[in-house]
Amino acid sequence: MAGRAPTIADVARVAGVSVPTVSRVLTGAIPVSAKRRELVERAIQELGYQPNAAARALVSGTRSMVAVLAANTSRYGYAKTVEGIEEAARAAGYMVVITVVETAEQDAVRTAVAMVLSHSVAGVIVLDFDEPGHAALTALPQSVPVVVAAAAQSRAIKLPRAFLADQRGAREATAYLLGLGHETVHHIALPSSGRRGGRTAGWSAALQAAGIRPPKHLTTTWNPLDAYELAKSLAADPSVTAVLAGNDEVAAAVLRAMTEQGRSVPGDVSVVGFDDQPIASLVTPALTTVAQDFAELGRQSFTLLERSINGQESQQTVSVPTQLIIRASTGPRRD
Amino acid sequence: MAGRAPTIADVARVAGVSVPTVSRVLTGAIPVSAKRRELVERAIQELGYQPNAAARALVSGTRSMVAVLAANTSRYGYAKTVEGIEEAARAAGYMVVITVVETAEQDAVRTAVAMVLSHSVAGVIVLDFDEPGHAALTALPQSVPVVVAAAAQSRAIKLPRAFLADQRGAREATAYLLGLGHETVHHIALPSSGRRGGRTAGWSAALQAAGIRPPKHLTTTWNPLDAYELAKSLAADPSVTAVLAGNDEVAAAVLRAMTEQGRSVPGDVSVVGFDDQPIASLVTPALTTVAQDFAELGRQSFTLLERSINGQESQQTVSVPTQLIIRASTGPRRD
DNA sequence: CTGAAAGCGCTTACAG
DNA sequence: CTGAAAGCGCTTACAG
């Protein structure tokens, strides 16, 4: 393309000072006379000089990138978390590099981790939302600061962690449904990284607290069509009057399956989603859902990482609350 | 954290060879005897050595990162495009670093561009979906390979470009609606980077080809609630019998506004979305929509970028086709 | 095929 | 406050 980018030596030459002097005005640590400082600044302007991050990282160990390791980057919760990380990182002067870990298989995990490690990042945030994410977590060496962003508390790993209080959210939503007079609440879970996701645990806890034996929960994939098939079996069962879905898409699938089966929502059955995606208020009926602030999860994760990078250990775990948003898909049990 | 990462010098020492020899087995360009190669490989294994990408980039100019500049990373089309880019980049051995350009204001744009430039990336892909993206495009210097991923053809900028054939998709969808007997088609557009987005242009062209004067189109924001407000005004107008929405979320808003107004879909009004997000088949009625393959757009963009990086200029523009998916939200005009 | 030397663009002690 | 020197971890000619 065009000529090579200007270097610090070019700036020094134009400004008529030494290379270290330019470096000093750049880093700002060591004092430089006002006169030379101005000369240097002018030269930088004139040449459109940009410091070379690679050289800088090489010599000073100053890292200006953080990596995020995730199994996916486009699904709502994942994308929003990445967005929050990027926002906080950018505000702090870091760039974010993303690497997806497609599966939990050793090869995929190793390749991803090796890539990240070779790029001398300041730290890495792992989206421990699923098996691949969790596998990546365990494959990371101690040599780099790591924080985990999780969709649930749990896991014994000793690492700073930000998590969504989805267990509590599920408990509250379930209790709310029970309070509406439903005799039990059915649950369709999403695949998760734990033996049992936080939402499923919260749902189960709420039922048990009410003295109700949790019905067997169903587990679906990330493909809403699979959720739809599962939902049809629920729709065929007249004892099902309240459903807690793993996320809003699953909830939409339930809405549709119920409607097709001639069961009205919320007249015959109440449905609660998870996430509060933008579409949640637009489906018919508008979805009651447990709002999760993924962007905040991302921001908090970065804050934790920044602390770790700076050697401040401080608070190890931060929880991001959920909020039950009641709309039109839930109502009292009809006798 | 732990001790410093092993360097090429450590590997050389353990293997009992010189540093350049290690480098040679690493890069693979220059032949090395089988014996030493094996010694080196064993040492690499033993030490868990990872080449330092910064040092490598510094000396050889070998870049292993590509940047994506975008106004947003979490909305469906944006996130899917990034996903496609990441997938293709990873397969080719590149990492992707993302930077969001929040607004088209000079400050935001400059900061983002400077960040990217200082990180010696091999190239950059700009998501020219909106004003900030477009501003970033014009702020990028000639010194780095750039390709544009766009939601529409257009723009005179002389750069390799992959674009979604959304103009054609909108034209087909509009013609389909007209073929159903609707006298005209109304349109709610999303904000776009052009004076007039591809979808709007395609819609307008189809109407004109049929000798129909396009009604004034409405423009909404990315917030589905705004689309919902707009949709209410359309719902109140009995002459509206067919609506082409800017994307599936807008279409969901239209569905809801119509239903609330007592106008049935598709009995009274037909609605077509754009994107075919997973939720499209789950809303009620299932949405007829123009499917757009954003992931493919991302992959194609990367392929173009890779060519540019390797100095092969070849084909400058690639178009990713859309596909009209007919479901239940559209039907013949009822008299 | 292999090693000693030079150098990528920067920052950090070291002497003034 | 400032410049000459050394060195970060690598790769690329240069000589063998």
Task: Summarize the topology.
The structure is a homodimer of 335-residue chains.
Chain A: H1 8-15, H2 19-27, H3 34-47, H4 53-60, E1 65-70, H5 76-91, E2 95-100, H6 106-118, E3 123-128, H7 131-139, E4 146-150, E5 161-164, H8 166-179, E6 186-189, H9 198-209, E7 218-219, H10 224-235, E8 242-245, H11 248-260, E9 270-275, E10 288-292, H12 294-309, E11 317-320, E12 322-325
Parallel strand pairs in A: 1-2, 1-3, 3-4, 4-5, 5-11, 6-7, 6-8, 8-9, 9-10
Antiparallel strand pairs in A: 10-12
Helix pairs in contact in A: 1-2, 1-3, 5-12, 6-7, 8-9, 10-11
Chain A binds a DNA duplex (16 and 16 nucleotides) through helix 2 and helix 4.
Textual characterization of the structure:
Two copies of one chain form a homodimer. With 335 residues, chain A is of the alpha/beta class. Chain A has three domains: 8-51, lambda repressor-like DNA-binding domains (434 Repressor (Amino-terminal Domain)); 65-164 and 294-321, Rossmann fold (3-Layer(aba) Sandwich); 166-292, Response regulator (Rossmann fold). Chain A has twelve helices and twelve strands. Chain A has helices at residues 8-15, 19-27, 34-47, 53-60, 76-91, 106-118, 131-139, 166-179, 198-209, 224-235, 248-260, 294-309; strands at residues 65-70, 95-100, 123-128, 146-150, 161-164, 186-189, 218-219, 242-245, 270-275, 288-292, 317-320, 322-325. Chain A has a six-stranded parallel sheet, with helices on both faces. The first copy, chain A, has a six-stranded mixed sheet with strand order 7-6-8-9-10-12, with helices on both faces. In chain A, helix 7 links the parallel strand 3 and strand 4. The longest helix of chain A has 16 residues, at 76-91. The radius of gyration of chain A is 25 Å and the shape is elongated. The model of chain A has no long low-confidence stretch (mean pLDDT 92). The interface between A and B is large, with 63 and 63 residues. Chain A binds a DNA duplex (16 and 16 nucleotides) through helix 2 and helix 4.
